[in-house]
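User: Please fill in residues for this 145-position structure.
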């Protein structure tokens, strides 16, 4: 009798491990697809976001914690639904916010490869995103003249 119970426990654990491995594999495939999409679209924002890290609800088997989005982190979205850079346009000109983007690009370029456990592709995606935003803001600033 004890042998049957132990066998059921081992089989149950094996099935659970297979499920976790399958989920991890699907998560990796999704990350790879999103990274490819970002590269193909020069780091522009996209409609699907994978979040990871802290969330309001604890991670459980039925409610796995979402993956954190390092390029467009949720902590930059304010109560009014806009990101910090969008709210900056209320205080500064498009040219000034574009300059801030370029200074931010310099910061990321200057320290890329120097942080522990750094994902260099993720850092480059940030650089590309700020570069695209700076160009877009400068173009819009020139259109107003």
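Assistant: Residues filled in for all 145 positions:
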């Amino acid at each position: 009798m004890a042998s049957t119970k132990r066998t059921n426990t081992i089989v149950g654990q094996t099935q659970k491990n297979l499920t976790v491995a399958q989920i991890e594999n699907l998560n990796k495939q999704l990350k790879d697809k999103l990274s490819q999409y970002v590269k193909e679209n020069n780091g522009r924002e996209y409609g699907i976001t994978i979040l990871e890290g802290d969330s309001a609800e604890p991670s459980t088997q039925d409610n796995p914690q979402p993956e954190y989005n390092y390029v467009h982190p949720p902590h930059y979205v304010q109560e009014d639904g806009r990101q910090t850079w969008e709210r900056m346009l209320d205080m500064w000109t498009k040219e000034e916010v574009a300059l801030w983007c370029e200074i931010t690009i310099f910061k990321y370029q200057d320290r890329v490869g120097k942080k522990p456990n750094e994902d260099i592709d993720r850092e480059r995606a940030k650089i590309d995103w700020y570069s695209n935003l700076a160009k877009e803001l400068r173009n819009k600033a020139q259109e107003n003249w």
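For context: The CA atoms of residues 112 and 123 lie 7 Å apart.
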